[in-house]
Design brief:
The complex is a heterodimer. By secondary structure, chain A is an alpha+beta fold. Chain A contains 15 helices and 19 strands. In chain A, the strands form four sheets. A seven-stranded antiparallel sheet of chain A has the order 14-11-13-12-17-18-16. In chain A, strands 5, 6, 7, 8, 9 and 10 form a six-stranded antiparallel sheet that branches. In chain B, the strands form four sheets. In chain B, strands 14-11-13-12-18-19-16-21 form an eight-stranded antiparallel sheet. By secondary structure, chain B is an alpha+beta fold. The chains are: A alpha+beta, B alpha+beta.
């Protein structure tokens, strides 16, 4: 690959839009990997050689055929809002920027057909006109693309209603282009979509998607103050299980996390734990009753969609945005991703807080998981060393709290640490040379 | 001559719509209690002395005042679709037929308010014109009224998504009239709703109901058939737990129950257990995938269309299941049982194996405390009371608890001590003479 003349490659690919400018290529080779000091060290020098910006699927196929013929690695990219280098080209080569594939193709019976590069915010702008919205979205809704979310994400705002991307029924169809001499276009439906979801684009390039939508509700954003994190967590759990209270977001912070939410500070009593929720308008009364019963005080509320200059949408304080607020104040902070699950999961949360205290300021995202309520812990970490970080991770795992390590770019290590055989088989069929996003799928590397 | 037919009492009701034709008195004093051979013996022949049909809340107040002054029992009638004599007057008196209190007061966003006599089917259709619908309804949607449902019902079609009527947030408010010489008009909201909810009209007269709505989806009706009962039960549970599959109905019927059903030719293969499903159109393919994975067959799939001539699938479910069987075989009756959370499938399978065709399993899967559980309306080949109670005892031994459908006593429907206390206290205030639906609240003692 060292022999590639990139100017020549760009000329060969013309009229497909290519970017060779070094600064721009570098910029488009990065995501939010720097949340992790570990990844920051490992990935800061990573850069592609050429950014290719196809305008349609035909240009995607042409690009892939060319790269296949010349053994050029291809790493697909949405908006680059990932947190573990999902879209970063470890081996250089082409960054395939899909943001121009941004058409909303149609909506029927609650299913939207869209191109992969469509931004989530634009997808919702189209679907809301017909009374529909995304079932769930990441906190990067205003910047991320739908293809990037499906290829690199897992759940988000709305998962307390619908579970995650891996729950059957949340992605209905994918159109995927293979990495072969003559790239094929696959239409995947039903369970066939599974191997391509959360595969970081290692086994095919997603160009179109069938996304099931939810009917849009009038949502309400609410902040509730609680005396302590234990009461706030118990509230989050109870709210999660309250079947008649319709909610889209149930997030709990302790004060050591909430203290970083600068725009919210005028509303947050110092030293208190916080619940940040999105509630259906018709459920507000029941929510208020439950809040009072559990010792909470509503300190802020407004209809969703009416954000002010000073306070962005509240979901931009949740999921992976939480860490960003902390990082703005303190560059040494990083975070974890773990799962508090099982009948004693509130105890697990309490034990974690008792063990680590202010070293890992707590942040909980309540979610539905396989038919019940659980909580993802995205606690902040006051980083001291990689060694200490992995001591914390080992303690969590030894105490029944699996960690989806956000300090690795390896697909399997960021998940449940098992090889997804279907994902691997899918890669074997569709990317026989292993050129798609190389270095990410461990099972392929090992094979 | 009873007080209810005395000239003085009639004078107090002057100008109101009254019915005292004996045949109508008998007809309108009945519900579906005859599902139960026990209740049939106990309730046959019970009738009101006078029917009053109020056209306004003011007229309700006049009737309540007259009954209080003359100490005449007063029983409220909605659509009379209850199954345990909820509205059967045990001590004669006035039957207050709410059919003419049928105005829709508002449908705004995700909430709606109706007078008590609005039929659920009409309420649902009016909401659907605005893009919303009832969160749940009983299988008697066509005849039942809003007021009757919240007074005598518990759950229904939609509970697989939105839980129970008694879950905080399902019913938003009730306006009620007390039974006193000078009746009061009281608005119940929040926790106070429990004073009138599922009280059989023993504590007050419900005249208006405000309900939380759900967004209207295009629904698909499906039937899945399985050879093996265990596989069918596990499928029904897995379907309910699939967070990405948006459901409205998940009902399991063991063979030979389907052999009683008419109008579903081809969908109910001999010897097979079936699951009746309503699912958002987008997720019909997801249901097909799950059925295939679990070794079942989809035997029916059609859009749910109220205008079509098909009997809607839900009219084979919930309390209609027993009715469909009774149409063919007058000797069957049923049970109504509650299952242990987390072990409901095991209990269901054990009960199926315990009795064979004598007790035909029928389980309605629904959300309870955030999880998928079922309740069962087993259809029983009745031989004697003794045998029926023996079956109940054996079911109890494996954790399946009776919510006795062979009793008209309010407290026999499961022990809900908190709401029973609340209701008893409220009845002392709102019906000090104990005139409302006398004989139903066993804890009531005259002051």
């Amino acid at each position: 690959m060292n022999a590639i003349d990139w100017e020549r490659a760009a000329a060969d690919l013309a009229p497909i839009d290519c970017i060779a400018d070094r600064a721009l290529v570098r910029q488009k080779s990065r995501d939010f990997f720097w949340y992790s000091p570990v990844l920051n060290e490992k990935l800061k020098a990573v850069r592609g050689d050429l950014v290719v910006c196809p305008a349609d699927e035909d240009e995607v196929r042409r690009t892939l055929a060319y790269c296949y013929a010349h053994d050029i690695p291809v790493t697909p990219r949405g908006a680059g809002t990932g947190n573990y280098g999902q879209a970063m080209p470890l081996k250089g080569g082409v960054v395939l920027d899909l943001s121009r594939l941004d058409r909303f193709l149609g909506l029927k019976d609650g299913v939207a057909r869209v191109q992969a590069g469509l931004k989530l915010i634009d997808l919702e702008a189209h679907s809301l006109k017909q009374g529909w919205e995304l079932r769930f979205h990441p906190s990067t809704r205003r910047t991320a693309t739908i293809g990037g979310f499906i290829a690199g994400g897992s759940g988000g705002v709305g998962s307390i209603q619908f579970g995650g991307l891996r729950s059957r029924g949340n992605v209905l169809g994918l159109r995927v282009v293979t990495m072969e001499a003559s790239p094929r276009v696959l239409e995947l439906a039903g369970d066939e979509v599974m191997p391509a979801i959360h595969a970081y684009g290692t086994n095919g390039i997603i160009t179109e998607l069938d996304m099931p939508l939810a009917r849009a509700w009038p949502w309400h954003e609410v902040l509730v103050s609680f005396p302590d994190i234990a009461q706030a967590s118990a509230f989050g759990h109870a709210l999660g299980e309250a079947d008649a209270i319709v909610k889209k977001l149930v997030t709990i912070f302790d004060w050591s996390t909430a203290q970083y939410f600068k725009p919210l500070l005028p509303h947050l009593p110092a030293g208190k734990a916080v619940a940040l929720c999105m509630i259906a308008d018709g459920s507000r009364e029941a929510f208020a009753v439950q809040t009072a019963e559990r010792g909470g005080t509503i300190v802020f509320e407004r209809p969703y969609g009416e954000e002010s200059e000073d306070i962005p949408p509240l979901y931009e304080f949740t999921w992976n945005h939480t860490t960003l607020w902390a990082l703005k104040a303190d560059r040494t902070i990083t975070y974890l991703q773990c799962l508090f699950d099982g009948p004693d999961y509130l105890d697990k949360i309490a034990r974690t807080i008792a063990r680590f205290g202010d070293e890992t300021p707590m942040h909980l995202e309540f979610t539905r998981l396989e038919g019940h309520v659980a909580a993802f812990g995205l606690q902040l970490v006051r980083y001291r060393s990689e060694q200490r970080l992995y001591e914390i991770i080992r303690w969590l795992e030894a105490n029944g709290v699996p960690v989806a390590d956000p300090h690795t770019f390896i697909l399997e290590d960021g998940g449940m640490k098992t090889v997804d055989q279907a994902q691997l088989a899918f890669k074997r069929r569709n990317d026989p040379k292993g050129l798609l996003n190389p270095g990410k799928m461990k099972a392929w590397q090992d094979a | 001559m009873t007080v209810a037919s005395s000239p003085a009492f009639r004078t107090a009701l002057d100008g109101l719509e009254l019915i005292d034709t004996p045949v109508l008195l008998r007809q309108r004093s009945r519900d579906f209690y005859w599902y139960s051979p026990i209740l049939k013996r106990e309730l046959d022949g019970k009738a009101a002395d006078l029917i009053v049909v109020p056209h306004s809340i003011d007229e309700v107040i006049r009737v309540a005042a007259a009954c209080a002054r003359f100490s005449v029992p007063l029983v409220v009638r909605g659509g009379a679709t209850g199954n345990y004599g909820q509205m059967v007057p045990l001590e004669g008196g006035v039957l207050l037929d709410m059919a003419k209190l049928d105005r829709t007061l508002f449908i705004t966003g995700d909430r709606a308010r109706f007078e008590a006599g609005v039929k659920l089917g009409d309420a649902d259709q009016q909401c659907q014109k605005t893009g919303w619908e009832l969160r749940m309804f009983p299988s008697t949607r066509r005849q039942a009224t809003v007021g009757g449902y919240v007074s005598g019902g518990a759950a229904g079609v939609g509970s697989i998504r939105y839980g129970q009527l008694r879950d905080m947030g399902s019913v938003l408010a009730m306006k009620v009239v007390t039974c006193e010489p000078v009746p009061r008009l009281v608005e119940l909201r929040g926790a106070d709703i429990g004073k009138a909810l599922h009280a059989y009209g023993t504590t007050c007269i419900v005249v208006e109901v405000e309900l939380a709505l759900a967004p209207a989806y295009p629904w698909v009706e499906m039937v899945a058939a399985f050879d093996d009962f265990t596989a069918a039960a596990r499928f029904a549970q897995a379907l309910g737990e699939a967070d990405g599959i948006f459901l409205k109905l998940d009902s399991l019927m063991a063979w030979p129950l389907p052999s009683y059903f008419r109008g579903l030719d081809g969908a109910l293969p001999e010897t097979r257990h079936v699951i009746m499903i309503m699912v958002a159109a987008a997720n019909a393919p997801s249901v097909r995938s799950l059925v295939a994975e679990r070794g079942g067959t989809v035997t029916l799939e059609r859009p749910y269309d109220e205008q079509s001539n098909n009997t809607p699938l839900f009219e084979y479910t919930w309390n209609h299941t027993t009715l469909q069987a009774l149409k063919v075989d007058k000797t069957v009756t049923y049970l109504q049982t509650i299952f242990p959370l987390g072990a409901n499938v095991e209990a269901l399978v054990a009960s199926h194996e315990m009795f064979g065709e004598e007790v035909m399993a029928h389980a309605e899967f629904q959300r309870r405390q955030g999880r998928t559980n079922c309740s069962s309306l087993q259809v029983v080949r009745y031989t004697s009371d003794e045998r029926l109670w023996e079956i109940v005892k054996q079911l109890d031994g494996i954790g399946i608890k009776l919510s006795n459908p062979h009793s008209y006593i309010l407290e026999d429907k499961g022990a809900r001590v908190l709401s029973a206390d609340l209701q008893l206290t409220f009845k002392r205030e709102a019906d000090p003479q104990g005139l409302l639906n006398p004989g139903k609240m066993s804890r009531w003692t005259p002051a």
